[in-house]
Amino acid sequence: MVAAARAVVCVTLWLTVCQARGFTLPAKMNKTISNLLQHYNISSKLRYSGKPVFSRELLTGKLETKKLILGGVLEAYEKLLDQMLKELPSPGTQTATAAPIPADKAGLEVGEDVRTQLTYILEKVQDLRKHHYQEQDNILQKLHALKHIQMDNLVVQNKALFELPRLYSEASSLLGEMKKQMRRRRRRQARRAKTSLRA
């Protein structure tokens, strides 16, 4: 009884530690985003309208799917941040719609301060995408190329029919391979769980 209680406490502690070591946004990046949100100020009604730019539903599914979608989301953020940088007034000019200069930044031009902050966020997004989502970029480019196949071209139609048996067979065998991997993973996890409970 004591051993079982000790095992439950250990497992609970282990799960708590694993959850606590998740990634958090760097403090500088968090502060920069807060500053930018103040500059690009919209009403709460608009912000919380129930229609996010990037829906949470995009991130439901398997890990591979999430990585692929996040690669696309990061690419979209690069384009969005680049567009925001292009829309900023050139250095030395200030528009009538610009937010007032905060007291702690009174010596800086608002456009340049925002430009610096947007550039910092853009560099962080590019760095993450470059170092961790390169494979997803390649996949997205290949998927994009598939959208441009000429469906009404007789040569394309004939070649596609000729290639279908090979691709269909490969797609079917991939499903079988994925099921095998899932069974292996479950067996490994079951063995680990048994050995950790014995310890």
TrEMBL record:
Biased composition (Basic residues): 181-199
Species, as recorded: Trachinotus ovatus (Derbio)
Keywords noted in UniProt: Cytokine, Glycoprotein, Secreted, Signal
Name of protein: Interferon gamma
Main location: secreted
Annotated PANTHER family: INTERFERON GAMMA
GO BP, sorted A to Z: immune response
Family stated for the protein in its record: Belongs to the type II (or gamma) interferon family.
InterPro entries the UniProt entry points to: 4_helix_cytokine-like_core (IPR009079), Interferon_gamma (IPR002069)
Cellular-component GO terms for this entry: extracellular space
Any one GO molecular function term: cytokine activity
Region: Disordered, residue numbers: 178-199
Localization in the cell: Secreted
Lineage, top ranks: Eukaryota, Metazoa, Chordata, Craniata, Vertebrata
Signal peptide segment: 1-20
Keyword set includes Glycoprotein: yes
